Amino acid sequence: MDILVCVTRVPDTAENEIEVSKDGTDIERGALVYSINEADNYAVEEAIQIKERVGGSVTVVTVGTEESEEVLRREMAMGADKGILLTDDAFAGTDGRGIATILKAEVEKGKYDLILTGALADAGAGEVGGMLAAMLDRPYASLVNSIEIVDESTLKVGREVEGGNTEMNRIKLPCVLSIQTGINEPRYVGIRGIRQVASVQIPVHGAGDLGLKAEAIAPRVQRQDYFVPTFGAGAEMLEGSNEEIIEKLVEMLKAKGGLK
Questions:
Q1: Burial of 40 (0-12, 13-18, 19+ CB in 10 A)
Q2: Is 60 exposed, middle or buried (0-12, 13-18, 19+ CB in 10 A)?
Q3: CB neighbours of 250 closer than 8 A, spacing ≥ 6?
Q4: Which SS3 state, helix, strand or coil, does residue 157 take?
């Protein structure tokens, strides 16, 4: 099974102090440390596990800048066979639809049985996977937390739904799935693996290579403002025994109209 996994490079919130830029249109990115988007890492691990079970290949692709090559190499060190970097000045500032349009053009250059994305791979909007599936006219499932291969043309997938429940579906290949974190345990990537792929050539495709014109990827959604929410009053910590805390909590709820 030939699998394409769409990955992206994001600020590492564990390594950075995130601040809003002075003009309020973005975050300060100058000194940020970047890493692969967490959900994408689970998607790559799932692709590798499928390849290990049934054979095939795993290709990772990203839309970004030259610096985005580092996440491709990391995932190749993890076990992906190939990486593809999609970069062009025309891609800067595009929105989710634009990203999906760029990925669609790359998908159509190959032949993939399965395309995976992270469930939240695009600034938290969770839109690229669904848009890509619609543009390709392929079946789609989001928030996928399990994948079972039924036969060469069918998958059985579990989806996380409200209430902590899982919904099971059969879906025909080729298809697009957005992977939820927790579906697996991504394997460790060591220095040795990174060194082994350090000199591997990664194809770079721009707008011209993909047959894309600027108007096709021009953003239709514009970011208006970034801001830090105003801090409210601090929480009141209740102390005492369990019985005393319960009594105080009941009194507070009554005082605020939560209980009668």
A1: buried
A2: buried
A3: 259
A4: strand
Mean pLDDT, rounded, of the chain: 92
Q: For the chain, where are the alpha helices, taking DSSP H only?
A: 38-54, 69-78, 96-107, 128-136, 191-197, 207-210, 214-217, 242-255
What is the CATH architecture assignment of 2-217? 3-Layer(aba) Sandwich (3.40)
- Token pair 């249109």 is found at 25
At 121-142, the pLDDT tens digits run 767 788 999 999 999 999 999 9
Beta strands 2-7 and 57-63, pairing class: parallel
Task: Name, in order, each residue with C-beta under 8 angstroms of 213's C-beta and a sequence gap of 6 or more.
Answer: 207
Spatial distance between the Cα atoms of 50 and 255, rounded to a whole number of angstroms: 56
Instruction: Check residue 208 and give its pLDDT.
Output: 96
Break the chain into its structural domains and give their ranges.
2-217
**Structure token pair of residue 35:** 């890493």
Token pair of 91, please?
Answer: 């891609």
Q: State the amino acid at position 5 in one-letter form.
A: V
- pTM, 2 dp: 0.85
**CB burial string 65-90: b at 16+ within 10 A, e below:** eeebbbbbbbbbbbbbbbbbbbbbeb
